Amino acid sequence: MPNPSNPLIVQSDKSVLLEVDNPLYENARDSLARFAELVKSPEYVHTYRVSPLSLWNAAAMGMSPNEVIAALEEFAKYPIPSNISREIVDYMSRYGQISLYKEGPDILLLFDNEDLAEEIWANKKVRQYIIERTDEVTMRIDPGQRGFLKHALIEIGHPVEDIAGYVEGEHMPFEIREKTLEGKDWGLRNYQKDAVAIFHAGGGERGGSGVVVLPCGAGKTMVGIGAMHELQTSTIILCPNVIAVRQWIAELLDKTTLRPEDIGEYTGANKEIRPVTVATYQILTWRKSREDKFKHFKIFEARNWGLIIYDEVHLLPAPVFRVTATIQATRRLGLTATLIREDEKEEDVFSLIGPKRFDMPWKLLEDQGWIATAICYEIRLDLPDDMRRTYALAEDRKKYRIAAENPKKIDIIKKLIEYHENSNILVIGMYLDQLKLIAEAVDAPLITGKTHNDERQRLYDAFREDEEKILIVSKVANFALDLPDANVAIQVSGTFGSRQEEAQRLGRILRPKTDGSFARFYSLITKDTRDMDFAAKRQLFLTEQGYQYVIASADEKIWEKPPEDFFN
Q: How far apart are CA 531 and CA 497, in angstroms?
C-alpha cells in the first residue's frame, strides 16, 4: 500500500520517479528493472518509463499485470493513478491476444476476438502478408512472410505470440565436457542452466526464440553452448568480429566434444560451412555496391539449420534483420549485455528474434561472486585556456571531438597508470589520432580496426600472459573481447553518449579477480562541454545496473582513495 516513506512516485504520464536516498532504493530499482526503462539518473531522483515494449517483455517472462501493479504499489509513496493500472492491464493483455500456430502445412493467425480480427484485417500494411481469412478469428498467412507479419503487427501496437513451431534442422550430436582440455572441472552455472531451460522450454513451441540478457563476463557463450546441447542440431553463430568468432570456436572445442572438422569459420579470411558455422555480421552484410545483393546470405540456405545464435544481438545490422524475418521457422537465440539499440529498434529484436526470456541483474551476479565488484569514476578536467576559443567557435558536431581530445587527459592517464602499475590496464577511445598520442606517451601497443587479426590476437595473448600490462584500444575492444585479467579500464572518448557502448566497455573488466579485488572503470571527461553532456547519457547505464558512480575533479586524486570508502 502507498506509504509516505516509500521511494516511488508513479505519475499519470507513465513516468516513475525513484528517490535514490531512500533505504528501499535498491529493492525498488531491482523490481522496476523487470518492467520499466530507465530514462535519466541524476543524483537524487531517477526517472523510469513504463512503455508498451517493457510491459510486453515482462509478459513474455511470465509476469502478470497484477504482479506489475503490486510491485508499484509495494514501493509507491502515493496512490497509483487509475489510468496507469488500466494501461498496464491493457498493454500486457495484448501479449497473447494474437498468436501464430501451425495446422498441417498451414500457418494460421488466431485472434482472441472478432473485433480485433476486424481491426487487423482492415490494416493495409498487415493485410499484404495474409493469404485469406478462414473464419471470424482466423487467417492463413504465407509461411515465408511470418517475420514480416510479426514486425508489421508490433509496429501498430500488437505483439504476436509465435507458437507456430520450428524445423528441427540437421542432427548434430555432441556432449558437454566435465573437464576442459586443460583438465579443469567445469559446468554450467545455475543461472546459465535456468536461462537455457527457459529458452528451450522443453523443446516446445513456446520456447526456441528470444533473448538472454547477461552482463559481459557472466558467460553468455556458455548459455549458447547449453542451448546447442539441448537441441543437438546444426547451428549458425553470428558474431561482431573475427576475434569473437575464434573465441567461440575455442570455447566450443574446449567445453564440448565437437571436433575441429565439425566447426567452420565463415569470415573474410575463411569460408567454411560445417555443421556448426561461426560467422561475422560484417561478412554477411558485405556487397560490392548498394545495388548488389548480399552474396554471403547464401550461408542461411547452405544447410538445414536448426538454430541461429546472434551474439551481441543489440548490434544486429538491418540487412540481417531482414533475412531473419524470412527464417522464422529456425530457432533463434539472442545474447546481449543490454537490449538498448542506438537506432531504437528494440521492437525489431522483440518481433524477429523474440522477447526477452531471461535477465539477471548485474549487481546480483556481482554479489554472488560471478562477476567482479566494480566501481566507476568520472574524472572531470578543465579545457586548456588556449583551446577555449576554438571550442566556443566550433560547429556543434565538432565540439565533442575537441573536448574529447583534451590533451590534459594524457597527464591523468599517466598518473593512473603509475598508481596502478601492477594492474592490467585497457585505455579505450574512439579517435585514432588521440589514441596514437596516448600510445606514444605511455609506450604501449595500439590496437585499432586496421590492426591485422593475427597481430591483434598476438597482443591479446601477450596481455593474458602478463607480457603486456597496458593496451591502448579503439572501438574494436567494445565487443566480444575476452581478457579475463583486465582490472582497470580508462575511457578517454566514446560514441556520443552510447549506453550500449558503456555496457560493453565496463564488461571488459568484469571477469572475477582471483584475489577478489575491485575492478575500476575511469571515464575522463572535459568539464562544461559536450563531452560532459554525453557522459551523463552513458552514466544512465551504469546507474541502471546499480554501480557506484563517483564524480571528482582531477586534483582530488580520487584513484588513491580505497574503493571501500565509497560503499559506506
A: 9
d(CA 423, CA 198): 39
Q: What is the CATH classification number for the domain harbouring 210?
A: 3.40.50.300
Closest CA to 313 of 447, 209, 167, 404: 209
Grid cell of 213 as nine digits: 540478457
DSSP 346-384: HHHIIIII--EEEE--HHHHHHTTSS--EEEEEEEEPPP
Q: Which of 79, 94, 109 is the last residue of a domain?
A: 94
Instruction: Say yes or no: 270 and 416 in one domain.
Output: no
Residue 478: what residue type?
N
Report residue 243 CA to chain centroid gap.
18
pLDDT tens digit sequence for 475-530:
776 554 566 678 888 888 876 545 555 556 666 666 655 566 777 888 898 888 88
* Distance (Å, whole) CA 543 – CA 442: 31
Reduced DSSP (H G I as helix, E B as strand, rest coil) percent helix, strand, coil of the chain, to 5? 40, 20, 35
Rounded-to-integer distance, Cα 494 and Cα 276, Å: 35
pLDDT for 446: 93
> What grid cell was written down for 163?
507458437
- One-letter amino acid of 38: L
Cβ neighbours for 46, distance < 8 A, ≥ 6 positions apart = 17, 18, 20, 29, 38, 40, 543
| Residue 549 near residue 542, CB atoms below 8 Å | yes
Residue ending a domain, among 144, 163, 182, is: 163
Q: Does pTM surpass 0.70? A: yes
In a domain, 173, yes or no: no
Contact call for residues 13 and 87 (beta carbons, < 8 A): no
Residues found in the chain: 568
Question: Are 455 and 471 in a shared domain?
Answer: yes
User: Is the per-residue pLDDT at 291 higher than 70?
Assistant: yes
Residues 266 and 303 in one domain: yes
Ordered DSSP codes for 88-139: HHHHHHHTTTEEEEEETTEEEEEESSHHHHHHHHT-HHHHTTEEEEEETTEE
